[in-house]
Design goal:
The chain has 431 residues and is α+β, with helices and mostly antiparallel strands. Helices cover 30% and strands 25% of the residues. The chain contains 14 helices and 23 strands. A four-stranded mixed beta sheet has the order 21-22-1-23, with helices on one face. A four-stranded mixed beta sheet has the order 2-14-16-15. Strands 4-5-3-13 form a four-stranded mixed beta sheet. Strand 19 and strand 20 form a beta hairpin. Helix 1 packs parallel to helix 2 and helix 6 runs parallel beside helix 7. It binds ligand EPZ. The site of ligand EPZ has 24 residues, from helix 1, helix 5, helix 6 and helix 12.
């Protein structure tokens, strides 16, 4: 397996183009199952998670053509789809569970493995299943699989106990072909939900209210071909914006939607970074900035994104004073703390909060990526640390960042990706 070797780097300077959003393209690919025509998806990022989803879709009979260079994926979900998905593919990536709603809607039955837990939490799917039952499905669980059957799905009024992103997406997709109207309340309002609704509506669905906490879906007979460009990845953008702060550099991220980054922009300004909108993106200037401590509490959108918590913590380890980061979305998303402490960070975990005392310097160390965003956080810290850092298990990072080392090098970072002959273990399950 590969690792990153990162040395203390000069302030990163320059501009970097953000890829299409991982968390938008994965549900959109799954939604392709619902269409009886060919769906063209553009700006798809070249990520291992996308390849996993493509393999899963092909395993149930979806025809796929991918041009990785241009980021264009063509999907054709023929009529004779397989209603069963295999454990080895679904077990690799939790987002695979997003095929359940579309398969149930299209075929009236689906048999998929329950996604396991992962590094950041148990990741239950009870809200997804409650939604399917409300739409008229019969649910059976045994041997780690869930089977759902329904002669015809019908509209329902569903109130989500928690604004779960995945549950909102899965139930919305299941409701698109149901008889009648479904009203989904207390649902997630992330930009990726809006993008999925836009994709579905462009194929003939009738979804209103995506982006608000109440979505209304009027069932239609079928969906047709469409051509959709996914939104930019706000978390990749945020990661590079934080890199400007960690290294005291000056980075412009292009191909971004500033509106999707409001909570992060507010926090970066709070720690004294200069954030400005340019004609083609967002610029973060950390040159000669004395980083100031700040508190952050992760919340569903439009709160501070849990997917930026680890990266922002790397920045806070270098900010003068005491910062408190509270993780309210996942129950175990502080796996990066132990690794940051090995690099000299001063962090104490107290229940769901991490108390960070800023330090002058971090030092390089051998560390491991425990999950996607924790790995990114370690890469950021390593850029500033004195000495060299080796980050193992970077397959976690490569699930969600395309060409992270190449993009960082283009900004002046001293980072190389090397095959690690010693560490040839299998990739563990992804989260
Ligand atoms: C999506 O995961 C994202 N993944 C995650 O990004 C992101 O962190 C998360 O939303 C929150 O924004 C994709 O979109 C592929 P949730 P998802 O359902 O849908 C609980 C990354 O780094 N919950 O909103 O799985 C759950 O346990 C990844 O790119 C239930 O209790 O997130 C968690 O505590 C990591 N029952 C909370 O809700 C359910 O049925 C949020 O989960 C579903 C969820």
């Amino acid at each position: 397996m590969a690792k990153f070797v990162i040395s203390n780097s000069p302030p990163l300077k320059g501009s970097v183009k953000v890829c299409g959003s991982k968390n938008a393209v994965l549900p959109v690919l799954a939604a392709g199952i619902l269409s009886e025509g060919t769906c063209v998806i553009r700006e798809a990022p070249n990520l291992s998670d996308v390849q996993t989803m493509e393999k899963l879709l092909e395993s149930i009979g979806v025809k796929i053509k991918t041009d990785e260079d241009s980021g264009v994926i063509e999907l054709y979900a023929q009529d004779s789809l397989n209603w069963e998905a295999s454990y080895d593919l679904v077990g690799k990536m939790r987002a695979s569970f997003l095929i359940m709603g579309p398969l149930l809607a299209r075929l009236g039955r689906v048999h998929v493995p329950l996604p396991g837990g992962c590094a950041i939490g148990t990741r239950p799917v009870d809200l997804h299943l409650k939604g399917f039952v409300a739409l008229g499905a019969k649910i059976e669980q045994e041997h780690g699989y869930v089977r759902a059957t329904a002669k015809r799905l019908h509209g329902a009024r569903i109130y989500l106990d928690f604004p779960s992103v995945g549950a909102t997406e899965n139930i919305m997709m299941a409701a698109v072909l149901a008889d009648g109207v479904t009203v989904l309340e207390n649902c997630a309002v992330e930009p990726e939900i809006v993008d999925l609704a836009n994709f579905l509506n462009s194929a003939g669905a009738e979804i209103r209210g995506a982006g608000t906490d109440t979505i209304r879906i009027s069932g239609v007979k079928s969906l047709r071909e469409t051509d959709h460009t996914v939104i930019p990845d706000r978390i990749e953008a945020g990661t590079f914006m934080v890199a400007a702060g960690v290294t005291g550099g000056d980075i412009t991220v292009t191909n971004v939607v500033a509106d999707h980054l409001k909570p992060l922009i507010a926090k970066l300004k709070e720690v004294n970074l200069v954030v400005s909108e340019t004609e083609n993106g967002l610029r973060v200037n950390g040159d000669n900035v004395h980083l100031k401590a700040a508190d952050a509490k992760t919340l569903p959108y439009p709160g501070f994104p849990t997917d930026m918590q680890a990266q922002f913590m790397s920045l806070l380890t270098l900010a003068e004073g005491t910062s408190i980061v509270t993780e309210t979305v996942f129950e175990n998303r502080f796996m990066h703390v132990g690794e940051l402490k090995r690099m000299g960070a001063e962090i104490k975990i107290e229940s769901r909060s991490a108390v960070i005392e800023g330090v002058k310097n971090l030092t390089g160390a051998q560390v491991k990526a425990t999950d996607l965003r924790a790995g990114a956080a370690l890469a950021l810290a390593a850029l500033r640390a004195k000495g060299d850092t080796e980050i193992g298990d970077i397959y976690h990072i490569e699930r969600g960042y395309c060409d992270l080392d190449k993009k960082l090098r283009s900004l002046g970072a001293k980072i190389v990706r090397v095959e690690d002959p010693k560490n040839q273990g299998d990739c563990e399950k992804n989260n």
